[in-house]
Amino acid sequence: MSTLPLVDKDSASNEVLDILANVEKKFGFIPNLMKVLASSPSAIKAYLTLAELLESTKFTPEEQQIMLLTVSRENKCEYCLAAHSMISAKMVGMDSDKLVSIRDDKPLADSKHQELVTFTSEIVKKRGFVGAEAVKQFKDAGYSDQHVLEVLLAVTMKTLSNYTNHLSQTPIDPQFAQFK
């Protein structure tokens, strides 16, 4: 049971009504995370802005999901693992072996994507205090300085939602349930 209210279109403030309508248009429903964030216009706007900015990075849609799954795994967020597993499988077309490996913290066959998982994981585990060697390894795998900063963007976005879900005990939507 959620410790924060799930705000739907009937109970939303005027400030978030259009936001919820746009979310529903994009996904075909309003995910429970968005319903929790809707209690704060600033929080839902921040999350959606970060998501939009992540989409404009140099990372491919699959790489974006790799980072978001990795952060959610490291932060032990069942809600976001389920949601991003569904997005990865159904919307991005990620290979199921890759998806399971990321979720289970198993090595990936693709060495570049494995380095993305490793670097993202280290950023989360060490709260950003990764050394020069970790940055060098990441860049040696084919990523750039811009990518380094964009990993931080993904970590920031997912930390906001992961912590929101921890705090609110957000129920997993039926649309994500098979990916729990």
Structure in a nutshell:
With 180 residues, this protein is mainly alpha-helical. The chain is built from 9 helices and no strands. α4 runs parallel beside α7.
Q: Mind explaining what this structure looks like?
A:
- The protein has 180 residues and is mainly alpha-helical.
- The model has no long low-confidence stretch (mean pLDDT 96).
- The chain has a domain at 59-168: Up-down Bundle (AhpD-like), CATH 1.20.1290.
- It contains 9 helices and no strands.
- The longest helix has 24 residues, at 145-168.
- The chain is globular.
Distance between the termini: 16 Å
- Spell out the helices and strands N to C: HHHHHHHHH
State the total count of DSSP E strands: 0
Strand content: under 5%
- Helical fraction equals 55-70%
Number of helices, where a helix is a run of at least 4 consecutive DSSP H or I residues:
9
CATH class category of the domain at 59-168: Mainly Alpha
Query: Which word captures the global form?
Result: globular
CATH architecture of the domain at 59-168: Up-down Bundle
Main pleated-sheet profile: none
Q: Can you say what the CATH homologous superfamily of the domain at 59-168 is? A: AhpD-like
What is the gyration radius calculated from CA atoms? 16 Å
The computed structural class is mainly alpha
CATH topology title of the domain at 59-168: AhpD-like
